[in-house]
Specification:
heterodimer; B: two-stranded antiparallel ribbon; 2 strands
């Protein structure tokens, strides 16, 4: 590879390149910064994220390119997700800044690791080769294992980190094995070439099917769908809340990015078998996540199960992946849902972080009693998030579900749509319980008011309502962010 | 039209909400006045809306949708969703009922709500926007948004300012209603996919849905509306919600929210799925009759006055449903008028119950007796409203029920006069339970010490009730203008049936 070609390629993936370099620099700066000034790292991290985001937004709509010999694809799909990941990163920094100080776990590495993980996610969105997907997955995950164990003086946090690491490694094994089988079936790991091989009948289809199923399992662990969800509640509960917030949005979106890229673009030929699998997994995930969430009295665990349920909803978009006409719309609806989920999640987690106290205090549902009277704005915002999770208009969550249900009904899966709406009804029960406790019970909640946290809460709340009433631009972006292979 | 009146009526309460947001919670009276003025201005504008609607027909009353606005709102992967509102003979009266009841409700809370007045008024005005929106929306998506949105403020009104079991009642109300509406959501999506539009007039014009599919869609829409009405056997949320809600909440719940269900049947089930509607008419009529008798019987068994009024709603709404599914002009017109009547009479009853509850903090019938002697003005007004609710000739209830029974008796769609015959029994039962209540509370000796010192209702309370009484008499004595408003639209609707 000549130098000029390398430069060209790097320019194509500029946001990723900038962020990776920035993360390395952060580590260096951190080493020389005195302990009491670690706050500067947060600011620097935010600047880096904003810079990368600016570049990514400016490049939205550029013609699709496949640099590095087609190992990665920079299309509107990946650019859309890049913006989403960077946005999640900004929110992840905002909610962590005060929390880390308050919990006395402030370390500059948090921000550097966050940035590395985002690099992994961005690469995940662009990957057009199964090997790159594996690399991206590891780049995404390894920083998260460490972040989950950041509160090292807490056994729960250590347990979360270890559990996440073990299951992550385990699922990585599935993925690699699947990649190997796909390679065996087609003689290549490039998604585009896989399609070609299948088209010309040179692929061993049964081996390909098994390989794709293993890949699905590997990524299924990452996004936390049933029955690969077992780690989720413990890890989400044990990890420091800002990490959980970031994981539940970013890692999930990253996993779905890869799933969509692989199945919609490369494996539509397997839809006869895999559609049923996705159907069942999605239905189980929605059902289990929402039903078990009812039994939770700890808000972090409740949100953990809720995030499992939402993975089920997003997975619905993959069910019609074999129908070319529908999958276009359903990918768009999944992207839109991810945005809705990101805003709602970060908002809700920011509220949780505002109420959290040291040693795991302030996390019980009862600690929210009286919030409606003492902190009306915060409670109102939390209500918006709960309604959005439930899918009640006028919120983004409703628009997301509407779009999702539409795309799968267009694919002819009315039964799954029915399960989707019925489980939403179940979810209304536990989301509303938060509202009930906040407004209809008396109490003295203690809240940390910190500008960055409040900014996250209110920006999210306003976005959830306003973007749902004027959702055309966002819908338009999501609809144009279709997948391309090369 | 320079100003879009329909939109103005819908969103005017939000201006009040904005003002309230910037007020301090302690200025309770100022907050009450802002809310009252907002709702009064909204009412005034809705009168202008009515005048314009009448004028739009050039001499005759228009059968079509008037004062219409249609602007593109959301485009969603190839679908165009419009902000599409307008009024016609089916909806204009309900819009007016809403804007008319809200100021009265706000007036009724003047001394009843002392806690978190600001929040209360904000939720109430939000609710008004939602309710008016439901009645004027002509795009299914927009309709659904308004429909679901009304749940949120009502949920808070019950949950924060309600009675002892308010949390249970609020959640039950929310979940029941949502259970129905999610099925409607799927049906709406199906229509969108098959017909490529959400516009109600366009969907009616397109038609052409096979009958067996119509039946499914009919049932999905009916699930949402039947829970809201509520039709027997889906009514079990209603007594809880009504009893636990604060007075103003009960008035709006009975007066307007239940009408959203019957209106939904009228606007969507009858016109979008005409074949299915004809086929289902006997079944709906059967459930309606069961509701009439059941509601009346359970009302009779109540000791709590508010519960009695709540169950009587099940009975009265049964009449409305019977009228609508008679599918002939008398029945449908009677049904629409009965929606208004029920809003007025039951609204007034809830206000009356609220007034005595504020004084005695009990609603047990046995705790009263001989109130007529202590509170003569209150007694007189209660008598009139009771008689109106029973359907005494000369008052509003009679006109509606008579028209409904007439329609149901000769209805081809229902197919048997027995439905009307059994329903007529409900009129007698209504007299039984309403008079029992009146007798226990107002007649006889004043045998309780606490009742001897009760003050009669004050001017504010009289002002709250008098407007309702005016309409109770007006509709009872001269219902022609009300029928005239809706007749052309009803004719047009029925012409679309097979």
């Amino acid at each position: 590879m000549t130098l000029s070609l390398l430069v060209d390629n790097l320019v194509t993936i500029l946001p990723l390149a900038v962020l990776a370099v920035w993360a390395c620099l952060l580590l260096l700066v951190d080493a020389f910064l005195p302990r009491q000034h670690k706050g500067w790292i947060a600011l620097l991290a935010a600047v880096g994220l904003a810079l990368a985001m600016g570049i990514a937004v400016a490049r939205f709509g550029f013609p699709t390119e496949a640099p590095f010999g087609g190992m990665v694809v920079v299309d509107r799909f990946s650019t859309f997700l890049t913006v989403l990941f960077l946005g999640s990163g900004l929110a992840g920094v905002a909610v962590a800044y005060d929390y880390l100080k308050r919990m006395e776990i402030e370390r500059g590495e948090y921000y550097a690791l966050l940035l590395f993980s985002i690099c992994g996610m961005m690469l995940m969105g662009m990957a057009a080769d199964l090997i790159v997907i594996f690399l991206a997955l590891e780049l995404l995950s390894i920083p998260l294992y460490i972040l989950a164990a950041m509160a090292a003086h807490h056994n729960e946090s250590l347990e979360a980190g270890l559990k996440y690491f073990l299951l992550g490694a385990f699922s990585g094994g599935f993925l690699v094995y699947g990649v190997a089988l796909v390679f065996g079936a087609t003689g290549t790991t490039q998604l585009f070439t896989i399609v070609e091989m299948v088209r010309y009948g040179q692929a061993n289809l049964s081996l390909l099917l098994i390989g794709s199923a293993l890949i699905m399992i590997g990524l299924g662990f990452k996004v936390g769908v049933v029955p690969f969800h077992m780690w989720t509640p413990d890890v989400y509960h044990g990890a420091p809340s800002p990490v959980t917030a970031f994981m539940s949005v970013g890692a999930k979106a990253g996993g779905f990015a890869a799933l969509m890229r692989i199945f919609v673009a490369a494996f539509p030929s397997l839809s006869a078998d895999m559609t049923t699998v996705f159907w069942v997994i999605s239905a189980l995930t929605m059902f289990l996540g929402n039903v078990v969430a009812i039994a939770q009295s700890n808000i972090k665990r409740m949100l953990a199960y809720s995030s499992i349920a939402h993975a089920g909803y997003i997975l619905m978009a993959l069910v019609p992946f074999g129908q070319a006409a529908v999958s276009r719309v359903s990918v768009a609806s999944a992207l839109f849902y991810l945005v809705a989920y990101a805003f709602t999640s970060f908002g809700a987690w920011a509220v949780v972080i505002s109420l959290e106290k040291r040693e795991g205090g302030g996390l019980a549902l009862d600690d929210y009693a009286g919030l409606g009277r003492k902190h009306p704005a915060l409670a109102a915002a939390m209500t918006v998030f709960m309604l959005s999770f439930t899918g009640v208009p006028p919120t983004l969550g409703f628009m997301g579900k509407f779009f999702l249900f539409r795309s799968i009904m267009e694919g002819g899966f009315v039964g799954l749509a029915l399960i989707g709406v019925l489980t939403s009804l179940i979810s209304a029960y536990f989301y509303l319980r938060v509202v009930v406790v906040m407004y209809m019970r008396e109490g003295e909640p203690e809240v940390t008011s910190e500008p960055w946290l409040q900014l996250t809460v209110f920006v999210s709340a306003i976005a959830v309502v306003v973007l749902s009433l004027f959702s055309t631009p966002l819908l338009d972006w999501a609809s144009r962010a279709v997948l391309q292979l090369f | 039209m320079d100003i879009d009146l329909t939109t103005l009526v819908t969103f005017l309460p939000l201006i009040g909400v904005l003002v309230l947001l910037f007020m301090k919670g302690e200025q309770k009276n100022a907050i009450r006045w802002v809310a009252l003025l907002t709702s009064l201005v909204t009412f005034a504008v809705s009168i202008v809306l009515l005048v314009n609607f009448i004028a739009a027909g050039n001499g005759a009353i228009s059968a079509d949708i008037e004062l219409e606005t249609k602007v593109p709102w959301i485009s969603l992967g190839g679908w165009q969703i419009y902000y599409h509102v307008g009024v016609d003979g089916l909806s204009i009266l309900l819009v007016l009922l809403t804007t008319f009841l809200v100021p009265l409700c706000i007036l009724s809370t003047w001394s009843a709500v002392e806690d978190r007045v600001k929040d209360f008024m904000i939720f109430f005005l939000l609710l008004e926007t939602g309710m008016v929106g439901v009645f004027v929306a002509l795009d299914l998506f927009l309709f659904y948004v308004f429909w679901e949105f009304t749940l949120v403020p009502m949920y808070f009104l019950i949950g924060i300012w309600g009675g002892p079991r308010r949390m249970y009642a609020a959640i039950k109300f929310f979940l029941y209603t949502m259970a129905g509406s999610i099925l409607m959501l799927l049906a709406i999506l199906w229509l969108g996919i098959q017909q490529q539009t959400f516009s109600v007039p366009e969907l009616i014009a397109k038609g052409g849905i096979p009958e067996n599919i119509q039946l499914w869609l009919f049932l999905a829409f009916a699930a949402a509306f039947a829970i809201k009405v509520p039709m027997w056997p889906l009514h079990s949320w209603l007594p809880d919600a009504h009893v636990e809600a604060p007075t103003a909440g009960s008035v709006i719940l009975a007066g307007v929210l239940l009408k959203m269900g019957t209106y939904g049947f009228l606007r969507f089930n009858l016109s979008l799925f005409p074949e299915a509607a004809v086929r289902m008419a006997p079944w709906i009529a059967g459930l309606a009759v069961v509701g009439i008798i059941y509601g009346a019987a359970v009302s009779y068994a109540q000791q709590d006055v508010k519960k009695l009024v709540a169950y009587s709603s099940v009975s009265h709404l049964g009449f409305v449903m019977l009228g609508l599914f008679a599918l002939n002009p008398q029945g449908v017109q009677g049904g629409i008028l009965q929606m208004i009547n029920h809003g007025l009479s039951t609204g007034a009853l809830f206000l009356i119950v609220g007034m005595i509850y504020e004084r005695r903090h009990t609603r047990d019938m046995d705790a009263f007796g001989g109130l007529w002697k202590v509170m003569p003005i209150y007694g007189l007004i209660t008598l009139i409203v009771t008689l109106s609710s029973m359907g005494l000739p000369g008052l509003n209830g009679f006109v509606g029920e008579f028209s409904i029974l007439l329609g149901a008796f000769g209805s081809e769609a229902i197919g048997s006069p027995w439905f009307a015959g059994l329903a007529a029994l409900g009129v007698i039962l209504a007299a039984v339970y309403m008079l029992k209540m009146f007798q226990k509370m107002f007649l006889g000796p004043v045998d309780k010490e606490e009742n001897k010192v009760l003050k009669d209702i004050n001017w504010r309370e009289i002002i709250t009730l008098v407007p309702l009484l005016i309409f109770i008499f007006w509709i009872g004595l001269y219902p022609k203008p009300f029928f005239a408003l809706m007749a052309p639209a009803v004719e047009k609707l029925l012409a679309g049936l097979p």
